[in-house]
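User: Structure please.
Assistant: Input sequence and predicted structure:
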Amino acid sequence: MAFTSEVLELKIDGEIGTLWLNRPQSRNALGHQIWHDLPLACAEVAANSQLRVLVIAARGPHFSVGLDLKEMGGSLSTPSESTRPASRARTSLASYKQIRYLQDAVTAIADLQIPVIAAVHGYCIGGGVDIICAADIRLASSDSIFSVREAKVAIVADLGTLQRLPRIVSEGHVAELAFTGKDIDAARASVIGLINHVHEGSAEEVLAAAYELAAEIAANSPLAVQGTKAVLRANESMSVEQGLEFVAHWNSAYIQSNDLVEAMTAFMERRPAKFTGD
């Protein structure tokens, strides 16, 4: 059964997919249904062997204003009387399971084998930053505003930003953003390295840039691109020597592909290569 959702929209156009956050009336606040449906959408993407790149974008004027506190605020504090666990330990366990459930939804993005491009416009706050940190590449329109907002609402950011953002920007910038909860504009986000490129104008323009970049990636061998992503991720927990050993094993297993033959043939024939992923 194809993926369907009232709050997310998955569109496939050949080798490029787009996952839309689709709660524009709520400024794409992240409520229960999004957290439930996000891993299902990622599973649909992972199961499609034709897809080579995923773009994450948003309907409406904002990428996401973060966690839907109106909808989910109760689940962040003491459970209601009807569901109150029998002990403080069980209350803590219930909170732990809820946090891990939400974390797993974001991690489903990071775990995709294909590259993920986030196309941001308007507000990208709290959980929105968690989502884009799980992407591989981030583009933004010039009107974008970013905030690791959790400290302002008495929460320690717990869905991945504090773990993934230090691998994107320097620790000092992470500390400043997380301790203050301040807003930064797209220009500052670009300077510190959170954003790859800032695009002047509207959401449509940054989305067009994301598709252009996605097409550039999709034109390469999917085996090589996905292998490169796997090696980059493995490097995060390895020494240089361990990383070299990992990539040596990877290429010894995958380098003898039809795509490599096609690359060499296309070079000799002075034409663009047409890769199949075989």
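The first strand starts at residue 8 and ends at 13.
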